[in-house]
Amino acid sequence: MREKLVIIGNGMAPGRALEKLLETHPDRYDITIFNAEPRVNYDRIMLSPVLSGEKQFDDIVIHGDAWYIKHGIMLYKGCKVTAIDREARTVTAANGTVEPYDKLVIATGSVPFIIPVPGNNLAGVLSYRDLDDVHAMMLAAKSRGRAVVIGGGLLGLEAAAGLNEQGMDVTVVHLQPTLMERQLDPAAGYLLGEAIKSHGIKVVTGANTKQILGEKRVEGVELSDGTVLPAGLVVMAVGIRPNAALAKEAGLAVNRGIVVDTQMRTSDPSIYALGECAEVNGACFGLVAPLYDMANVLAAQLAGDTVASFKAEVTATRLKVTGINLYSAGDFAEGEDREEIVLRDAAAGVYKRLILKDDRIIGTVLYGETGDGPWFFDMMKKGTDTTALRDTLIFGQAYQGGSPLDPMAAVAALPDDAEICGCNGVCKSRITGAIAGKGLTSLDDVRAHTKASASCGSCTGLVEKLLQMTLGDSYNPAAVQPMCKCTDLGHDEVRRLIVAKGLKSIPEVMQQLEWKTSCGCAKCRPALNYYLLADWPGDYVDDGQSRFINERVHANIQKDGTYSVVPRMWGGVTSPKELRAIADVADKFHIPTVKVTGGQRIDLLGVKKEDLPGVWADLNAAGMVSGAAYAKGLRTVKTCVGSEWCRFGTQDSTGLGIRIEKFMWGSWTPAKVKMAVSGCPRNCAEATCKDVGVICVDSGYDIHFAGAAGLDIKGTELLCHADTEDEALEIIAALVQLYREQGRYLERIYKWAKRVGIDSIKANIVSDLEKRRRYYDRFVHSQKFAQIDPWEERVNGKDAHEFAAMAEFGVPAAAE
Amino acid sequence: MADWIEIGSVADIPRRGARCVTTPGGRVAVFRTMEDEIFALENRCAHKAGPLAEGIVHGAAVTCPLHNWVFDLRTGKATGADEGQVRTFPVDVVDGRIFLAREMIAAAAE
């Protein structure tokens, strides 16, 4: 019979331990987990990007439900363990479940420290610990009111930055004279304070909180000097305490945390503890690297390896706030037996300090430029004698040996046990071993197999170099095609980084992603403009100068420099009034050609640029708006007459087409989107060669997509069936939103679908209704900012400079 | 070259954009770069006469809207694999006001 393993707590440490254990001994235990939080295991380090809106919860899940099912693990969510009976070897949960164990692991984590001042229990006083706290903060931030964050450490500053990003007016109150004093020396703390302030966050240091004011809800914070800071939200981030209450009640040895030996054993040989709740040799831990070390030791113990033991290593710290680069490790207090090397570059905002003892690095503080952090850290861990490097040490690895080192050689020179990924504690040999042993060929493979670069991503460059080094010529990073000659990054990477780093303008993207040209080119600028517009609706201001002329002047340029104008005809339906207006416009402006298009509307060709606003004004006056015939956006929704007239029609295809077009017009997409709705399978609207096509049937609507009838000819794929018009509309909008978020600029839907796979699209749109709803909601949100008729705007004077010469010195004879 | 004629101000042209000046001989495209440098070129692509003023301006170059030829605004020469040349005209900027040589406007009218 299998031994019974019970785990109390489902955070990152036990999650990692289980992963390790299951790698080697998948069948050894019958496993049950009790999680007080009502959810699966997620990456707590990444809560800050969730708070700031850069990531969603789905993005930070480590083990989804499927993982537990696959491994046969019973996971009780939202179920707190209330007692451990060591005699009977059982645990009892709040819901009454009594679970026997052979081995028990306590991983109850920590609880936030709440400072004992009056008012600390008012509504609106939060801590920053789990997803519920993040949700509460995001909800509070909707008021866009004032927030006070008590605590200027790592967590407090990330919370402050997140709330600031959510639009709140944030003040950080910190007891010490400089920020993050546990990780930074005063000089770097000062620079950090200035950078935080430049983000619009107020900082009060040397401030002692006297009380929190308010009747029922928090109204403000009073400091001991009498200052009152009004606030509708107070976040306490002053530290954590090991959560050892349960263990203590069970009679286990407890000091600050649950006392364990270096093999994670508590005072009861059948019970282990790890993570933030555990205390090893008198020390408790809060950063992820040592917790993962504990997880490795525990996994080994549970697998029967009694040799593995935990050794507290120095750990490095990084701050996850966009635009602030900070790295610190080790001990940086001054002392008589210590020397320091300092480099400052005020103009560049760089501060670097190394603390040496007996010619060995014992501490590092880097601000502004942190690339050499891992190199210094490695020497520090190894106790490398730096005498020979002394003169140029502070300039970093690239300066050693006189001339800048080839970056590949620098990576090759790293020892096998050099840590590459700090978040997940992955060393070089583990990555190179996995590449060689498992035949990995891409960054995604390495992320999947080793977790390296899968959390904060700051080691991605190193991992890529390891791939290149290990695979040699057979590594083809150009599986990632660069966007253009201005960058080495591919479209997907750029899109990912825009969201992850919260980049909100073209100059910011170019600066942060190290563009090689000063202002891009005609390939990347329109792409970036679209990505920013799609990713930050309502926030990003469209850059007209980065748009192709057609989208800038909302008409199609022709070979002679004149333009064509196509008004919308919803679902291809027009009226005598519209037709009269079109005829009048053609006469009035001497428009040489009037033609019916393939998309069931009318094209006016040969309009002079300076006449465009006049043409639009007359069309607007008859109720017509831009048909966006020039746009990487929704073009036409072609329809047949459907059940209203046709003897074969099964549904109102014309009405649905009009509804879709009125709902979706104005949206920008990676490339043009053409749709059609046919009222029966005879398919008179030719829906099965469109980007999105609907075929009406008796029972409802078959939704097709990914067709093409241009350079390539391709029939559509069937996405799914919808019973009602409402459902059809939701599916189509969600599908287009998914495409808007994943598509590469100029990549049509059929090419996108081929690249990501029909199954992955179905997984997002068809099988998971919640996901579908989220995509739909995001589409609806972005439409709020998109459905403005560009013609009307220009009739009213927008971009007037586009439609008039700067100066006139005679009529150009050639033009007439 | 004493006789300059004012055609407008730098602020009349969007950064990374262009405006046209009409002359009896055709249009002159006046470009403004990200760094506020001003260049004047014949508004006629050497390839198929596309209106360069409608192109995307990047660095000191413009991409023609018709077939994506790229011209160096300083020299008027096509860059990359394409071969061709567009006429350039001297401009002078004083106090944010842009001047074109009067004889050049006449020359454009040839």
Describe this structure in words.
- The complex is a heterodimer of chains A (816) and B (110).
- Chain A is α/β, with parallel strands linked by helices and 816 residues long.
- Helix content of chain A is 31%, strand content 22%.
- In chain A, helix 1 runs parallel beside helix 8 and helix 11 (428-438) crosses helix 13 (460-471).
- Mean pLDDT of chain A is 89; it is low at 812-816.
- With 110 residues, chain B is mainly beta.
- In chain B, strand 6 and strand 7 (70-72) form a beta hairpin.
- The mean pLDDT of chain B is 89.
Oligomeric assembly: heterodimer
- Describe the sheet with the most strands of chain B: 4 strands, antiparallel
Task: Please give the order of strands in the largest beta sheet of chain B.
Answer: 2-3-4-8
CATH superfamily of chain B: Rieske [2Fe-2S] iron-sulphur domain
Dominant shape of chain B: globular
From the N-terminal CA to the C-terminal CA of chain A, the straight-line distance is 94 Å
Low-confidence stretches of chain A: 812-816
Gross morphology of chain A is globular
Low-confidence runs of chain B: none
Task: Describe the SSE topology.
The complex is a heterodimer of chains A (816) and B (110).
Chain A: E1 3-8, H1 12-24, E2 29-35, E3 41-42, H2 47-52, E4 61-63, H3 65-70, E5 74-77, E6 81-85, E7 90-93, E8 98-100, E9 103-106, E10 110-112, E11 125-127, H4 131-141, E12 146-150, H5 154-165, E13 169-173, H6 186-198, E14 202-204, E15 209-214, E16 218-223, E17 228-230, E18 233-236, E19 240-242, H7 245-249, E20 258-260, E21 271-273, E22 278-280, E23 283-284, H8 288-302, E24 316-318, E25 326-330, E26 338-345, E27 350-357, E28 360-367, H9 373-382, H10 407-413, E29 419-421, E30 426-427, H11 428-438, H12 443-450, H13 460-471, H14 491-500, H15 506-512, H16 524-535, H17 549-553, E31 556-557, E32 563-565, H18 576-588, E33 593-596, E34 602-607, H19 612-621, E35 634-639, H20 653-664, E36 673-678, E37 692-697, E38 700-705, E39 708-709, E40 713-714, E41 717-722, H21 725-742, H22 749-756, H23 758-765, H24 769-786, H25 790-795, E42 807-808
Parallel strand pairs in A: 1-2, 1-9, 2-5, 9-21, 11-18, 12-13, 12-18, 13-14, 20-22, 35-36, 36-37
Antiparallel strand pairs in A: 3-4, 6-7, 7-8, 10-19, 15-16, 16-17, 22-23, 24-25, 25-28, 26-27, 27-28, 29-30, 31-32, 32-34, 33-34, 37-38, 38-41, 39-40
Helix pairs in contact in A: 1-8, 10-13, 11-12, 11-13, 21-24
Chain B: E1 4-9, E2 17-23, E3 26-32, E4 38-42, E5 56-58, E6 61-63, E7 70-72, E8 88-89, E9 91-94, E10 97-101, H1 102-108
Antiparallel strand pairs in B: 1-10, 2-3, 3-4, 4-8, 5-6, 6-7, 9-10
